[in-house]
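To fix ideas, we quote verbatim one protein's residues and fold tokens.
>
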Amino acid sequence: MNAGSRVAVEGAADLAERWELPLCVDAPEAPLMLRREGERLVLAGDPGDYGNPLAVDFVAGRVAHRRRFGGGRGQLIARACGLGKGVTPSVVDATAGLGRDAFVLASLGAEVLLVERVAAIAALLEDGLVRAAADPDTAEIASRMRLVHGDAGLDLARRVQEGGIDPQVIHLDPMFPHRAKSALVKKEMRLFRELAGDDADAPRLLEAALDVATHRVVVKRPRKAPPIEGPAPRHTLDGKTSRYDLYVHRSLTAS
């Protein structure tokens, strides 16, 4: 799927040019539209198909609740990524998506590079980071987050170099193929999948991550799903609905 051809931009010519997306006047057939609603950039389609417009918000809503009450470094993702007492590794979130996992890690003190391959989603992330940087409750967290646009499965080393981060830990959350009926349960996820699709190239993504990470690669999977094809993980951490497969090069130590 050509994700760019599925999205047009309403009004903002500079935004369309920067993310190489068509203006709405040039793409009337596009089912999804990036537009401004108040202070937020949103991605919207037919409400019957896609539900409410999608935005990245690191200041309020679910992300804010998780920042306050999520459990700190006891959270599964924090443990998987090696955030322990005296240990705060740098993390590359190579499948950034809507940035929620990256924000959790940054809120716990980690420097995080977000890599997102879908231009429209990267535009939402950029907008969310700008608003988070302007809010006193999240500005410090946002200062630890950097965003680059690119396909981690094709040029991860280049994107990490561009982001200027030491890739101690690389976090992957590939889109897992779901049954058709389950993919329709959550319209937000349906909209996201319209652009991102399933990650059929997950083995290549894992291989790239293993080549670039200095200490470990962490892969989020549905709890009962098989590991990604390739080398076997050294450890797993199980949660209620998902798990983390850990591929360890060497131990993380306190600096």
About this structure: The radius of gyration is 18 Å. The longest strand covers residues 216-222. The longest helix spans residues 119-133.
